[in-house]
Amino acid sequence: MLAAPGRIEITRIARRAPGPGEVRVRLEGCGVCASNLTPWAGPDWMHFPTEPGAMGHEGWGVVEALGDGVQGLAEGDRVATLFQHSYAEADTGPAEQVVRLPAVLDGQPFPGEPLGCAMNIFRRSDIAPGQDVAIIGIGFLGALLTRLASQAGARVIAIGRRPYALDLARRMGAAETIPMADHQAIIDRVRDLTGGAFCPRVIEAAGAQWPLDLAAELCGVRGRLVIAGYHQDGPRQVNMQLWNWRGLDVVNAHERDPAEYLRGMREAVAAVVAGRLDPLPLYTHRFPLEQLGAALDATRDRPDGFLKALVLP
């Protein structure tokens, strides 16, 4: 439980029996999401302590109990979940919010929610072969999108803060990398790379005001600006004159419909099984559940070589 800003407490409670239409999953692990960082900092609207396991929404594990009426699942099935209390040893939720994992993935971590998020954002980006695609923010999500876009035949221009992230982007298929340092220098470089046309697709995956401003500047006329960053710390301002003048299509690519989440998760399973995606090298840090606080700190501070933390019960 998040007991107070910046303080985790471990407690023992009874495992909840699944109700009708629910399953209980014995968790093998849960990814740590950057969206946890605002609650971790303790904003005014937070109430403490949180519910047990709260904030954890990237879980995977093995079905250990079935509620009445559940069909198509059995005890022992390995699944990724969309449950919301997975910083724990077990989590219970609707059977319709799990995706079965094939045996070929046995033993591999599979935080289905962020992998599915990448697939959904990629689909909504509508990337075609030969396009110039700028991706701003090379974290876990940006790295996955770099791989997907380059495999689709696009020329990816990856823009990130850290040398480690830019090296990773090159390994994931980026044709060009640019340090995210000087605003005008980035614009000038992309202008040069694209012959003055800028990019028909730009994906903002940083979740902050400056990268959002930069993303619009890098979009060409009638380009598509895809907002993949999670903007949760307050309102944003946009250069509506620029958006209007260039006739940009702006896509907020986060999904809130569980059916779309699950669609992306199934596509992620298929992509990993087929070898289109290999997320294993992106899970750079692993922590026991008792060190969830350290995992959240690492997600916030991003030490050299950090990309994605997993918490393992």
From TrEMBL:
Keyword terms, alphabetized: Metal-binding, Oxidoreductase, Zinc
Tagged with keyword Metal-binding: yes
Residue ranges of every copy of the Enoyl reductase (ER) domain listed in the record: 3-312
Coiled coil: none
Requisite cofactors: Zn(2+)
Source organism, top-level taxon: Bacteria
Endpoints of the signal sequence: none
InterPro entries cross-referenced by the UniProt entry: ADH-like_C, ADH-like_N, ADH_Zn_CS, ER, GroES-like_sf, NAD(P)-bd_dom_sf
Family to which the UniProt record says this protein belongs: Belongs to the zinc-containing alcohol dehydrogenase family.
Protein's recorded name: Zinc-binding dehydrogenase
Protein source organism: Falsiroseomonas selenitidurans
Lineage, uppermost ranks: Bacteria, Pseudomonadati, Pseudomonadota, Alphaproteobacteria, Acetobacterales
